[in-house]
Amino acid sequence: MNYNCSIKWINSFQKFGIKLGLDRVKYILDELGNPHENYKIIHVGGSNGKGSVCNIIASILNESDYKVGIYTSPHLHDIKERIIVNNQIISNDEFANITQKIKPIIEKMKASREVPTYFEILTAISFQYFKEKKVDYAILEVGLGGKYDATNIVTPVISVITNVSLEHQNILGKNITQIAKQKGGIIKESTPIFTAAKNKSLEIIKKIANEKNAPIYIISNKNWIRLENTLEFQEFRITGLLKEYRVKTKLLGNYQGENITLAIKVLEYFQNHGIKINEDYIQQGIKKTINPGRMEIVNYDPIILLDGAHNPKGVKLLVETLKNDFKYNKLIFILGILKDKDIKSMMPSIISISDYIITTQSNNDRAIESVELEKIIKKMNNKIKLISKNKIQDAIKHAIKITNNNDLICITGSLYTVAEARGYLKKIEKY
Predict the structure, then answer these.
(1) For the whole prediction, is pTM greater than 0.90?
(2) What does DSSP say about strands 68-71 and 137-141: parallel, antiparallel, or unpaired?
(3) In this predicted model, what pLDDT tens digit does every residue of 105-119 receive, in sequence order?
(4) CATH topology for the 296-427 domain
(5) Measured in whole angstroms, how far is the alpha carbon of residue 413 from the centre of its chain?
(6) What is the pLDDT of residues 271-327, one digit of tens each?
(7) In what order do the strands lie in the sheet with 216-218?
(8) CATH architecture of 3-288
């Protein structure tokens, strides 16, 4: 099986959609000899900030000369972006070879009508790859929820829950209590849990941790403060478990202070347990961390900002960052959102600061049609300047046409929207 055939085969499983549960992935991993039992695992769940925390931790461990695998989702441009070892994406040949190993197992499952999902297959590929690369650590981002997510088959050395907000309510639960229980499902017996959850969700996570005899470390807003910010970097003062740090990061947004604090405290826990990680590694790891498609500036005249905010909390953080950290005359939003998102809760904060909104849609079956999104926004505010462009590249062309150099274009609503926009912007001269 060559690479193109392996991709075609894996993509054929997307039609089976989302099926939560651990039985299918457990079967695959058993057949492979349980590759995930060959390295230490850090398991990262939560609603927002998971990708940043995964990348920061990985970067610091890389600086500390550990071999580190990282498995995140979704990808922006290439499925292989989900599976990385020491900053190197899995190669075409490696991906195809592991797919070839897994395919007979999956075909046997299909014959018994226990068809695994696209995500479950990718999860198994990543676990097998990390074994073959002999990583010291694997950092796993939860795909959806926690308790029944395919990644929750693992026994980690540390669990992380960034925060909890309303999301995927059609799957995870209608209220914050139900969603927090799903997120808290990654907490394992006697395994340390680090979290930035607050209020009711924190109480639920504390309760689960207590039931599992899991030591809990809680990150609060008092643990960090931003000292300086520009469009190129931010500097924070972080109060860790062991000491205080001043760190610089390319990641934008005041909320990154919380993500950095989580990562630092996780690494300090390792320090306390004999793992060699010093302050220089922490400083350099944070400074080198990037997270494409999340608060990413891809053009300066005018500023074009990409952010994958796709739930009310993420949008709120984006809007706060635009208000506090950027200067501009006009603010133009290009919005493409998936139809299963809480669109009505996402829109008020965007409408409140926008001068112009262009609705669009990604090439994804779950994307709400741009004209339908336009109608929703009009019902909420019929005075807002608004236009619909079906294709993302047409939305970008229109936005550039109506902006001056001191304006700002923000492309958001979904990582699928951001990915298509980023791919197009790479091709045009302004990028």
Answers:
(1) yes
(2) parallel
(3) 999 998 887 899 999
(4) Protein-Tyrosine Phosphatase; Chain A (3.90.190)
(5) 14
(6) 998 888 999 999 999 999 999 999 999 999 899 999 999 899 999 999 999 999 999
(7) 88-89, 83-85, 68-71, 137-141, 40-45, 158-161, 193-195, 216-218
(8) 3-Layer(aba) Sandwich (3.40)
